[in-house]
Amino acid sequence: HAAAIETMGTIFLCYGLAVAFGHVPAWLPMISDCAVQPPERYPFRYGTVVGAMLMGATAVLVYNADKTYSKSKACLVLATLGSFCMGVVGVVNEKECNPVHSAAAVIFFFAYEANMVLQTWYSVTEPSTTWSTIILRKLLTIIVGVGLIIFVFLSLDWSKYQLYIAMLEWTATICILLYNWTYALDFYQYELAEIAEKEGQHVEKEDIPKK
56-86 b/e with 16+ CB inside 10 Å = b? Predict the structure, then answer.
């Protein structure tokens, strides 16, 4: 959940700075537009890279966790690729090199959506994942997937639909970060199950009469 909190905090901080200095309109800039001019581009660059590293670390932790859905190398590759590209988006803004920035952003969204689809599919078979977490993951995955499909069509006339594209970008980004946060729910439930199991074993041992 650290990745979600840190990255979301960075985005809203830079959005606030960009609006306050008159660099972008309040409703609604592209997230990348909040990372072009000083002073907002400095915390955006640092915060996005740190967030990308945390998301990559989360992908590795999930892969190495003792869970049914942890054994997918495809999920590890997709999540790591998406995290890396998110870092590239933060390091290279649209004014410095728009082709690199745009390509990294597209790869980030589509790679992480593919990871979300697979992780959600595998989550159904994970005993420690609650149904509420599974439903939340399904909802977030569907929202991002539908948003990306709409984005593909709207991007054919970017100038006409720029506001709607910005709305889709904000929605997809927040949903991806919230999805990353759901792993904390999973690990919390897993820890509770382990504690309950250990306490149960401890009680059983105490119930054994001494000879």
Answer: bebbeebbebebebbebeebbebbbbbbbbb
Flag the least confident range among 9-13, 28-32, 38-42, 71-75.
71-75
Higher-confidence position of 135 and 204: 135
Nearest to 6 by CA among 86, 104, 93: 86
In this prediction, residues 164-173 reach a mean pLDDT of: 97
User: Are 78 and 115 contacting, i.e. CB atoms less than 8 angstroms apart?
Assistant: yes
Tracing tokens 């955006």 back to the chain, one arrives at 44
Alpha-carbon distances, residue 80 vs 61, 76, 155, 174 (angstroms): 11, 6, 26, 18
Say if pTM beats, i.e. exceeds, 0.70: yes
